[in-house]
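[09:14] KT: can someone run the structure on this one? pasting the chain below
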Amino acid sequence: MEEIIKYIEENNLTKVSRKREVIYPRYYLYNKLREQAYTLHHIAKIFNKDHCTILHGIKIHKLFTKQKDRIYYQITEKERDLFGDKHLIRPLHIEVLDCEDLKTLKLIKKRIRLNLYEYI
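[09:31] RB: done, structure tokens below
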């Protein structure tokens, strides 16, 4: 996950700011690093924050993801494209139409179970 750390430095995501354009990518990256088994202390050190801030950011990320918050997805689109999670906002019918093999279909089935799609 050195690429994430490099990305954080290049995009100055450690700066003090309350703007959504800064904090939403941070929340996404807090969660991404946590998924990669980084400790809260280590993530806090990377961002120059304390572990409570990291916990709060992960909680907000999960809330926005669960609610399928369009603004959150829009602002974090660049990070999702770079680090994986593009499927989170694609409509189900597009995923099914783009499906080319059984493995991808099984992935779609798993995402449906996790309720990652919006239904029209």
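[09:33] KT: thanks! The longest helix spans residues 51-67.
[09:34] RB: yep, looked fine to me
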